Each structure stands twice: as structure tokens, then as C-alpha cells.
């Protein structure tokens, strides 16, 4: 499964690893989805994340495959997936575990944008 593709159809979703994580997350609001190809709930939330990536210009959506990027998953203490981490200028501001609606996710993202 080394080359497993993220469950994402949006071309705007960034695939993160150790090499590009800091660069992508250091500025602005970034919603990072920690996922795995075998995870059913990850597949359920994928369309929500695709929608956010395609329709919301104020947030960058990114994915981290926990099977391929175990050091990142460990650094963020990901114990369950999907875990969505909201970063602002590289700092974790909020975290969701499990499947969430677009409305719930964007409520938190928009609150961060206003702060």
C-alpha cells in the first residue's frame, strides 16, 4: 500500500508528508485530515473535505496517510481516524475526531478566520 492514493477527488487537496508539512501549514488556516485507505469513516468524510477544498477559498485542505506518515501521526498524537486538525499559521487550534459535517467544520474554521 505504499502508493495508496488519498480518498480525494479535489485537485485542490494537498497530500502531506514530512518534507512538505511545515511549508504547507505555516501560513493561513489549514485543515489536515489524518486518514488511512482501509478506514471506512475516512471514506465517508472524503466528499465533505472535497467540497470544502473546492468551495472554500479561505482554508487549505490537506491529507496525511497515517500508514505512510507514522512520524507525523505520532507527532500529532493521532489515535483514531479520521482526525481533522485545524492549524492556523502552523499552530494547532482545533481538532475533530470522527466524521463531521461541513457545517460543523466550517463553523470552527470561520471562527479562526475571524480571530
Automatic annotation (TrEMBL):
<feature type="site" description="Contributes to redox potential value">
    <location>
        <position position="41"/>
    </location>
</feature>
<dbReference type="GO" id="GO:0045454">
    <property type="term" value="P:cell redox homeostasis"/>
</dbReference>
<feature type="active site" description="Nucleophile">
    <location>
        <position position="39"/>
    </location>
</feature>
<dbReference type="InterPro" id="IPR005746">
    <property type="entry name" value="Thioredoxin"/>
</dbReference>
<keyword id="KW-1015">Disulfide bond</keyword>
<dbReference type="Pfam" id="PF00085">
    <property type="entry name" value="Thioredoxin"/>
</dbReference>
<keyword id="KW-0676">Redox-active center</keyword>
<keyword id="KW-0813">Transport</keyword>
<feature type="site" description="Deprotonates C-terminal active site Cys">
    <location>
        <position position="33"/>
    </location>
</feature>
<comment type="similarity">
    <text>Belongs to the thioredoxin family.</text>
</comment>
<keyword id="KW-0249">Electron transport</keyword>
<feature type="disulfide bond" description="Redox-active">
    <location>
        <begin position="39"/>
        <end position="42"/>
    </location>
</feature>
<dbReference type="GO" id="GO:0005829">
    <property type="term" value="C:cytosol"/>
</dbReference>
<dbReference type="GO" id="GO:0015035">
    <property type="term" value="F:protein-disulfide reductase activity"/>
</dbReference>
<protein>
    <recommendedName>
        <fullName>Thioredoxin</fullName>
    </recommendedName>
</protein>
<feature type="active site" description="Nucleophile">
    <location>
        <position position="42"/>
    </location>
</feature>
<feature type="domain" description="Thioredoxin">
    <location>
        <begin position="1"/>
        <end position="114"/>
    </location>
</feature>
<dbReference type="InterPro" id="IPR036249">
    <property type="entry name" value="Thioredoxin-like_sf"/>
</dbReference>
<dbReference type="InterPro" id="IPR013766">
    <property type="entry name" value="Thioredoxin_domain"/>
</dbReference>
<feature type="site" description="Contributes to redox potential value">
    <location>
        <position position="40"/>
    </location>
</feature>
<dbReference type="InterPro" id="IPR017937">
    <property type="entry name" value="Thioredoxin_CS"/>
</dbReference>
Amino acid at each position: 500500500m505504499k502508493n495508496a492514493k488519498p480518498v480525494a477527488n479535489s485537485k485542490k487537496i494537498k497530500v502531506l508528508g514530512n518534507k512538505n508539512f511545515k511549508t504547507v501549514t505555516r501560513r493561513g488556516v489549514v485543515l489536515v485530515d489524518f486518514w488511512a485507505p482501509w478506514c471506512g469513516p475516512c471514506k465517508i468524510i472524503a466528499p465533505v473535505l472535497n467540497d470544502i477544498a473546492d468551495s472554500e477559498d479561505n482554508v487549505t485542505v490537506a491529507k496525511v496517510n497515517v500508514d505512510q506518515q507514522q512520524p507525523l501521526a505520532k507527532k500529532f498524537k493521532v489515535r483514531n481516524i479520521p482526525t481533522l486538525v485545524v492549524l492556523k499559521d502552523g499552530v494547532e487550534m482545533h481538532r475533530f475526531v470522527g466524521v463531521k459535517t461541513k457545517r460543523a467544520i466550517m463553523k470552527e474554521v470561520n471562527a479562526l478566520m475571524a480571530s
